[in-house]
Amino acid sequence: MDNSQKKMLQEIEGSDRELRRFWAIIVLTISVFLSAFHLYVAGFGLPGIGSKTFLILHLTIGLMLVFCIFPIRKGLRQTSIPWYDVLLAILSLVVGTYIIQKQTATSIMSGRPTDMDLFIGLLLIILVLEATRRVVGKPLVIIALVFIAYFFLGEYMPGQFHHTRGDFERFIYEITYRNNGIFGTPIYASAQFVFIFILFGAILESTGAGKMFIDLALRMFGRYKGGPAKASVVASGLMGSISGSSTANAVTTGTFTIPLMKRVGFKPHVAGGVEVAASSSGQFLPPIMGAAAFIMVEFTGVPYYEIIQSAIIPALLAYIGILFMVHFEASKHGITGIDRSELASGRKLLMQQGYLLIPLIALLYYLVYVRVSVNNSAFFSIIVLLVLALFVQRFKDNLGRTAIIAVGVIAITLLLQVFIDPINQGLHALNAIFHINFFSAEMIRWKPEILTLLLISIGIALIFALSQTKMKIDSPPIHFGWKQTLAGFETAARNALSIIVACATAGILIGVITTSGLSTKFTRIVIGFSETLTNAMPSFLVTDNTQLYFALILTVFACLLLGLGLPTTATYVVLAAIVAPVLTDMGVHVLIAHLFVLYYGVLADDTPPINLPAYATAGIAKAGPVRTGVQGFKYDSAALLLPFVFTLNPTILLITDATWYQIIWAILTATIGMIAFASFIQNWLVRKYHWYERILALITALLFIQNNLMTDIIAVITLAVIFIL
């Protein structure tokens, strides 16, 4: 991502503060430390501190960075950090330090916090809400304030919402010192899983991988009807799975793809809308799913490999829907592709930057085949990525000198195994010198995989460098070095801030829900309302699934409402805590319930008027943001029915005992249903629909939702009638 893209992204996400000199160095130092600390923890574990201390440090440093980077309001164009934000950053550090020191204090362990404990806890809540307002925006803060108000006003609430637990001391204690509030599951997922993959994505992006994905996608689809738009869908899907941010993905890929789409004939707002839909839907796509997969492991207890196995087919169906939406749009307006002579050679692209795909292969290998921990998998992949990115070009530029450096790196790695115990003893001795308890006796834990990966990566880098020289392949657009490495570390810390503060605020919501007993009441309310609606229906329209249909529809509205204006990963955290339990209590499989809320949470990110990716792509396309947002929602709407499909027909999630031909039939009918719904939205199949043909297309799509052979046969007949017409 170049400087202009970074500036656009920062302004859209609320930060137009451009720090210089001293302040820029301060922010860079804190950001690099935060990223390096998480990288260390991912590889070697916690350095003599408890997991709770790790979460507090994660949030504390995140809050400090927020007040250093994000101004109190947009439009100030500050080049330094004002005194009040410096004070807030210092206050965040003081609050975090206090809470770390008080973890095992008698007042906290006994559940009788002192007045100072309560004051510090209140300060933490205020700091979290203010940081959330600056980074994420007002919607999540308003939701949090509503929940807080509910906690204290529960005795005045009617019916199911009534409770008598609104005590101030209990509120502060539960939210700030217990593990079901700010330092609960959301912030744990953010610290343990999300950050390390944001770091992986940021480093990968700083190598120029985004441009490679775009060029490869253009090579695959560029010459076909509406080719640049189809290439945008594929490239944005690949980047979106890794980036975890719809807006960042839209800026990164949209800078290249939107001008190409406009050039072949797509209208500006349509080009921007295609990029919005493609960028957002990357959160569905394994292996990373914008980090949602790893958070889902925490919430559901389902192993990672089972989650990505279940998520892969719906994700591909979602992208099939978007691709057909693009195809029908291109067919309607006679939009062609790019001449083949203008497209880069796929072989040369793979030789030039194909090594950047190897870290992704390594990630899948460790996650799915070896099944080591999520953190270790990311750590090993980042090692592979850094070695390849740093050595390939240097081997090509100066083979002899780089070979000496490579031998030196290997020698240092080998020596580290010998001297690791003395180094740990020396670090451990620093605790007594500085009166701290940070360094453990096993501060550095050697992993044999590091040396193996180092040797393999250097070997691969040498092969690529020699092949590029022999084939006279041009150098990649970015010469990766230490500057790009530090930039990747800083970008990761900046990109993680929205997740950190949103997860902390989500912890407040979860704390209120748990402490007030709202979780069980909310479930009873939805089930009761669904039952009332079912009873009001004529008996001949009621089926075994009618009540579930109503509950799912109510859940959709809750997801779209709660997800407005939130980063997609944070949206999923909120929905997983509040909404998903409703579906599981109604008998829906836990994985289905969480995938359901994930899909509609991501669609909420595309819903106008609060649609940050649309503001990003509208700026690139030079179109209206609201109009672009509507187009984005339109192109993503092909996936609107998909969660209903896999909820009522879980065969496509591969979690049933279905036979192979039942699985193929389920996938086939779901695919046809997606295409039929896309044609209904676009009012086009092989030509423009008549009004009754369009209704038939909608009926076909709805019939394919049912997990029933009879409705499938009727849908196939209806589709045949459409073609005959």
Automatic annotation (TrEMBL):
Recite the UniProt keywords alphabetically: Membrane, Transmembrane, Transmembrane helix
Q: Which InterPro entries match?
A: DctM, TRAP_DctM-Dct_fused
Q: Where are the transmembrane segments?
A: 21-41, 53-72, 84-101, 113-129, 136-153, 187-204, 311-328, 349-368, 374-392, 399-420, 450-467, 496-518, 548-566, 573-602, 663-685, 697-724
What Pfam families is this protein classified in? DctM (PF06808)
Has UniProt tagged this entry with the keyword Transmembrane? yes
Identify the residues that the record assigns to the TRAP C4-dicarboxylate transport system permease DctM subunit domain, covering every copy: 123-403, 478-656
**What is the name attached to this protein's record?**
TRAP transporter, 4TM/12TM fusion protein
Q: Which organism is it from?
A: Gracilibacillus orientalis
